[in-house]
Amino acid sequence: MTDDPTKRDGASAKPLMDDRCLENPVRNELRTKEHIQNHRDGSLWARGQTLDGVATGYWEWFRRDGTRLRSGSFENGEQVGEWTTYDKNGEVYKVTTIRPKSKAASSHKTKPKS
After folding, report:
1. Class of the domain covering 22-112
2. Among 11-25, 26-40, 54-68, 90-104, which range has the highest average pLDDT?
3. d(CA 46, CA 104)
4. ∠ CA(1), CA(81), CA(86), 5° rounding?
5. How far is CA 9 from CA 4, 5, 22, 29, in A?
6. Residue 45: strand pairing partners
7. Given this model, what pLDDT does residue 96 score?
């Protein structure tokens, strides 16, 4: 299995959206839902929000031991902005800047851990 939290068992790059999403009563008028997904053992695997079933806003992924694995933002289902990858201790390993696909052909710029 890959460490990329947006891919699981060869799935597409977008996080899995399923019926385990919870209604967000504060912004329900915009059809946003809080998305919570768990590992098979019940521990938190991912959390974020969706708008009409598409990933939007800030998301986080976690390892089974509870340490953060990756975090970043989505816009219309696409990763955008700074995405942070964390090491097994939960410390920042690297920060990757992802530009929207509609802009420059070079969409990834990685800053190694200082």
Report:
1. mainly beta
2. 54-68
3. 29
4. 40
5. 10, 10, 24, 34
6. none
7. 97
